[in-house]
Request: fold
Amino acid sequence: MATKKKTATSKLAVWVIVGLLMFGMIGFGAASFNGTQRSLGSVGDKTVSITSYSNALQSETSRFQEQLGRALTQQEIQTIGLDQQALNRVINTRALDQLVTNLGLSAGDERLRAQVVEIPAFQGLDGQFDRVAYAEVLKRNNLKEADFETSLREDTARRLVQQAVLAGINMPSAYSQAITSYISETRDFSWARVTREDLVTGTPVATEADLVAYHTENPDQFTTPAAKTITYIWLTPDMMAKTINISDAELQAAYDARIDEFIQLPSRLVERVIFSSQEEAQDAMEVITEGAASFEQVVQDRGLTLQDVDLGDVTEAALGDAGAMVFGLTEPGVTGPADTDLGPALFRVNAILDGNVQTFEMVQDQLRTDAALDAAIGEIAEISEEVDDLLAGGATLEDVAAETQMELGTVDWHLTTEDGISSYEEFQTAAAGVTVEDFPALATLSDNGLFAIRFEADVPAVLQPLEDLRDDVSDAWVVQTMQQQLLALAENIAPQVSLDAPLASFGLIENIEDDMMRSDSVDGTPPTLLFKAFETALGSATVLEDSDGVIVLIPRVEHAADLNNSQVKSLQNILGDRINAALAKDIFEAFGNAAREAVDVDINQTTLRSVNSNLLGGG
Reply:
């Protein structure tokens, strides 16, 4: 069994290697940059192909975009350094290939052949390796057989070295055990909030000197943010739909097309069990009515399951002659026997669903809005070509607004601007990156709208004078002063709190939390509450602030992790695997860096810039 498992794992590894290799070589195409340029440079005696860099960059970008939840622009990719990360990864890989060559390691012909013949793309209709198909597939993807086989040999040999380097690398179990103990231990603690109601001084009143000092000491609160003045044109379906008339005939046609949405008949969630005779069905109904057996038991006695007898959501008409009896129930229950095409049956109603009938008159406004938006989207698609041509021909945004239905506007934009066109993420991204050198270009919004922008000027941040916002300054001063008073009161109470003198003894509303882990949270409290509960010594109180006042907290009891608990053991195993994987990655990365240091790296920067322009030009 062990040998068989090892063979299966080995085959899986071969498929992964071959799959990655084929994707890497075919995904971009060996001649996709230009007809002759295929190399970025060399690492030792090994060529760094444009293909390998392209796929590494695509991989790094895709991974980062998944974490971020949106697409990255060319500028963002290079600012983050994803292009450099991809290049470093490719260089390290080729350095390892050079090391493998220097060591005299290589995948043998038999191993290479076994891998090639298993690739489905190289197999004929009979599932066997087809030499003609092999040549044709490589030819279609601009690959030479020798290049493909060399890359496959290198990839296989490199992974053999990797396995040798990482074999037996494991952190001591004490390490994962210590982390598991830290994560799994719990504490009991109490906390209370000190609020304005606990103060006896009342609401403070600021003097003129207080206001001047607060305004001077907190300029960030009263300074308008730096911004960009941006001129834009835009057109959205909502804007355009206001000018579109929809005929009554079109509305009626839309209503008819969506009739299932607007006309929903009453229905029931029903189960049905069929019997071979009326007598059997009647006997089953009587035992259910008398409570001698449940509907479930009757179903089981017939060798069925509830899933077998479930009809789902049905209308009265769908039940035929039994419909009237079933729909006669005013609440969930069992009824029958009723005649059906399959024989006498008992029905159980599990839920009564009221219908929902919306007449044409009731939904015509919604239909008109929907139809107008659909029509607007179509018209905007046509307008986009005209706008694109105008901008390409050198027309200004003002010219385009005058000649089309695009609307012209100006905004002093900054990161917190959210109104109007600034509510669109696409505009926010474009506004963040626009400079004076950029020419207006047409772009789309998430609702199928269009926009184009032009940078006008930078607007510096400005400290607003006290006279213009005296009330705001006064309110902010009061908030700060009362928070200081609350903090002072809490810091006076905390040293007096102990296990023998609980928070409630100081007139505070005490909240008790038991068996809490570090990863837990308490509603209505700051995230640092649990951190403080574990950081503070047992029996000693501490103070922490939040936006709702000040909290006094005292840890009462600590419970060590139960390392024999099945869940805790499972957590330790998971952590151990992750720690070992991270350690292996770091070690192999260091090994790759060492291999890189031992060879000469020659990357043509001009070619690299051209490739980046080709790959990232689309943003």
